[in-house]
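Ligand-bound model needed. pyridoxal-5'-phosphate.
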Amino acid sequence: MSKLSERDKEVIWHPYTPMKLRPDAIGIVKGDGVYLEDEQGNRYIDAISSWWVNLHGHSHPYIAQRISEQLLTLEHCIFAGFTHEPAVSLAERLLPILPGEMKKIFYSDNGSTAVEVAMKMALQYWGNKGENKKKLIALEGAYHGDTFGAMSVSERSIFTEPFNEKLFDVAFIPYPHAGSEAESMAALEALLQAEDTAAFIVEPLVQGTAGMRMYDAEILGKYFDLCKKYNALIIADEVMTGFGRTGTLFACDTVSTAPDIICLSKGLTGGTMPMGITATTGQVFDAFYDDDILKTLYHGHSYTANPIACTAALASLDLLLDDACTVARNRIGSMHRKFAEAIKGNEKILDVRCKGTILAIELNTGTPTSYNNSQRDFIYKFFINKNMLIRPLGNIIYLIPPYCITNEELAYLYSTIKELMERI
Ligand SMILES: Cc1ncc(COP(=O)(O)O)c(C=O)c1O
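Prediction:
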């Protein structure tokens, strides 16, 4: 047992971790491109971008350089009554490239807070306008974060179980499984017809935590059109899908009707610093722009718009918007599609799907698909022993690698997945 793992066990409580059953954390001492290196010198391909955050590889020298310069210029300052260059520049650069007509950026700390802010904006928007619209609608299987508001708009699951009675009521519509899209649409329309809906919140195109479930842009567009028809706000939670993961820069770029509010985090800083953003339109902002002080959005965090995080995001955007990155994303997408085609129909898999740089494989373990599938630990350890970080969602494995991954590294991931398929 390594020293770091032993020391960790004494003092650390890890997220999503049954601490009695899985106490041993691997001590990581270095990040280098697509690799994480442990204390013994083992290098792991980070095939899931460390919870979907890393875009350009670990310890990227350009981002590191920009951050270190910013650290010596301004590390942090209060963001009420004060502003600073990195926050303004980032908003100026992001707004024009976001889907729709986004006009304002509200900074917070992570994906969950980006969602909390979005819900507060939506609910208070209608209140400020004197309209009684309080209903929130979400999609079955949704995951929007772990704070109480974010849990409320998420599927009730083992994640929320101990808190369910404290969560507020949200209307869930059925997931648009192949063949039941019309049912999902009808459920949304029936709820919207009451005209008391503040907002519909959705993970566009891909439901991450539900198992990288994917649905078509046509369905997303129909959801959005229905919301517009019945005058409900649309919150697009692009925390996972943003910054090129699904093919286009943002998942909502695939539909012509734009959301009113967009939540961002994860890839926002290239995986370097924690930060969340809630972007919104002029229409939403204007409902708060008032002489009445009670129409203020009274929300904030101590580290709001941290200059180092904003600088990391600016540096990450430089890399993301470079043509070389688009080429890399397309290359990964086409490699994924070829592999998916090659294994389609294999008896060891129930489904294989890909969108952009995301590949997901639902393994046939003989037991039902679930987050706590009995094969989960075996699968995780199998890949760790092959020097790959793949964290299965139960029996669903997925790749969502940093964009700097090479074809050779991808080929190694695919061949190891095939090996696993032989073993289950
Ligand atoms: C779609 C989506 N929204 C929100 C969140 C919450 O983000 P965070 O873990 O940064 O709080 C996640 C995290 O996985 C997510 O996938």
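The first helix runs from residue 3 to 11.
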